[in-house]
Automatic annotation (TrEMBL):
Known role: Specifically catalyzes the dephosphorylation of 2-phosphoglycolate. Is involved in the dissimilation of the intracellular 2-phosphoglycolate formed during the DNA repair of 3'-phosphoglycolate ends, a major class of DNA lesions induced by oxidative stress.
Pathway named in the protein's UniProt entry: Organic acid metabolism; glycolate biosynthesis; glycolate from 2-phosphoglycolate: step 1/1
Protein name: Phosphoglycolate phosphatase
Similarity-based family: Belongs to the HAD-like hydrolase superfamily. CbbY/CbbZ/Gph/YieH family.
Record's catalysed reaction(s): 2-phosphoglycolate + H2O = glycolate + phosphate
Residues that hold Mg(2+) according to the record: D12, D14, D174
Residues forming the catalytic site: D12
PANTHER family in the record: PHOSPHOGLYCOLATE PHOSPHATASE
GO function terms (MF aspect): metal ion binding; phosphoglycolate phosphatase activity
CC cofactor: Mg(2+)
EC number(s) recorded for this UniProt protein: 3.1.3.18
The entry's keywords: Carbohydrate metabolism, Hydrolase, Magnesium, Metal-binding
């Protein structure tokens, strides 16, 4: 398969390869309750995931009626990073089929990368914890120095690291930001049902929506150019 399309599959992380919402929910509520605010429900927090931890913090404080100015947001973001560092894999689990699809794509010679708005350190720590790092050829986090999704820069950075062009790759994600990033980069995008999106997944504009990662291989085969 290494000589056929796709030569690379790029994955989003949260809501795609991992279900991190329970740990993010616990961490943001610790942050809020230290300030005498909150708590927020799990569905509330899920609806806020997708544009990085700093945006999650901003949205959470707005949701509890305490919007932050820029300096306050910087301070609360740093506090959140510290809290979350202690809760990266307490409740987080792999998405069903994640390990199997990564192992199978690797066995077939397909290059893989992760492009996520989550900061680099927790991203790498989570991937290491679940044993996925050895299978990945590029990991681009939200503080890696390029503009976050929905800009295309993270995809371009991953492709550059892989030595590939946009026409060689596909993105698998779960959100509007993922679709926007893929569209801007000029690569196809597959959306995973059951991820983190405040917009119904069938309406976010992906080329194809799949029910689970177990469907990915067949979907890729069906998308392959004749």
């Amino acid at each position: 398969m290494s000589d056929t399309w796709p030569r690379a599959v790029l994955f989003d992380l949260d809501g795609t390869l991992i279900d991190s919402a329970p740990d993010l929910h616990a961490s943001i509520n610790i942050l809020l309750m230290r300030r005498g605010l909150g708590p927020l429900s799990l569905p509330d927090v899920v609806s806020m995931i997708g544009n990085g931890v700093k945006k999650l913090v901003e949205r959470a404080f707005i949701a509890v009626g305490h919007p932050l100015d820029a300096d306050e947001l910087d301070l609360e973001y740093e506090a959140m990073i510290g809290i979350y560092a202690d809760h990266l894999t307490v409740l987080t689990v792999l998405t069903p089929g994640a390990r199997e699809i990564v192992e199978e794509l690797h066995a077939q010679g397909v290059l893989m990368g992760v492009v996520t708005n989550k900061p680099q350190m927790p991203t790498e720590a989570i991937l290491d914890h679940f044993g996925l790092s050895p299978y990945l050829d590029a990991v681009i986090g939200g503080d890696s120095g390029v503009e976050k999704k929905p800009a295309p820069d993270m995809i371009f950075a991953a492709l550059d690291r892989l030595g590939l062009r946009p026409e060689d790759a596909v993105l698998v994600g779960d959100s509007v930001a993922d679709v926007g990033s893929a569209r801007a980069a000029g690569i196809p995008v597959i959306a995973l049902r059951g991820g983190y999106t405040s917009v119904p997944v069938d309406e976010i504009g992906a080329d194809i929506v799949i029910d689970g990662l177990a469907d990915l291989l067949a979907t890729l085969a069906g998308m392959r150019p004749a």
